[in-house]
Specification:
By secondary structure, the chain is mainly beta. The protein contains 1 helix and 10 strands, in the order αββββββββββ. Strands 1-2-3-4-5-6-7-8-9-10 form a 10-stranded antiparallel beta barrel. Strand 6 and strand 7 form a beta hairpin. The longest helix has 6 residues. The radius of gyration is 16 Å and the shape is globular.
Length: 161
C-alpha cells in the first residue's frame, strides 16, 4: 500500500479530541452496585495523540497502579461519528463506543453496551466527556436499568497536572 493510500484527512472532530492530550489527576465517585454505597477513588491518566487521528487515554487507579485502564477515541468521517473502546485490568468486557458531540459542542456523548450491574444481562450505557475548561473535564457514566430508566453511577473530575 502506498503512503498516499494511507493518508488521513484530519477533521475538526479530531481537533476536539486533542483537548484531552496531557497529564491528568482524577477524583471519582461511583456507585458500584445499585443502591450500594458511593465509593471514591483517585487516579492518574496520561493522554497522548496517535498522529492526530486518535487519543490514547492510559489510566492507573489504586495504590501503585493496582488497576490499569485504556480508552481509545477517534473520529470516523465515513460513519460521521466518534468511535473508540475502553478496557480495564479489573474487567473482561471490552466496551465499544460510538457517539457525537452534544449541541453545545463541549460534551462528547458515547454509547456502548455491556453487562448490567443489576443482573449481568446486556444493557445500554452512556459515557459523556464534558470539557468544562482547558484544565478540567468531567466524565459521567449512566446505564439503562431493567425498568428503562437511565441511572447515573459514576462521575469523574479530571484536572490537568
Amino acid at each position: 500500500m502506498s503512503d498516499a493510500a494511507m493518508h488521513v484527512e484530519l477533521t475538526k472532530e479530531h481537533g476536539w479530541l486533542e483537548q484531552m492530550v496531557g497529564e491528568w489527576s482524577c477524583e471519582m465517585e461511583a456507585e458500584m452496585s445499585p443502591g450500594g454505597p458511593i465509593q471514591t477513588h483517585t487516579s492518574r491518566e496520561s493522554v497522548r495523540s496517535l498522529g492526530g487521528a486518535w487519543v490514547l487515554c492510559a489510566g492507573e487507579m489504586g495504590s501503585g497502579g493496582t488497576h490499569q485502564t485504556l480508552m481509545t477515541l477517534g473520529y470516523d468521517p465515513a460513519k460521521g461519528r466518534f468511535v473508540g473502546s475502553f478496557v480495564g485490568s479489573m474487567m473482561t468486557n471490552q466496551w465499544i463506543y460510538e457517539g457525537e458531540l452534544d449541541e453545545s459542542g463541549n460534551a462528547l456523548v458515547l454509547s456502548t453496551q455491556g453487562p448490567s450491574v443489576e443482573d449481568g444481562n446486556v444493557t445500554d450505557y452512556r459515557d459523556t466527556i464534558e470539557i468544562r475548561a482547558p484544565d478540567h473535564r468531567v466524565l459521567t457514566s449512566t446505564y439503562r436499568r431493567s425498568n428503562g430508566e437511565w441511572t447515573l453511577f459514576m462521575t469523574a473530575h479530571y484536572r490537568r497536572v
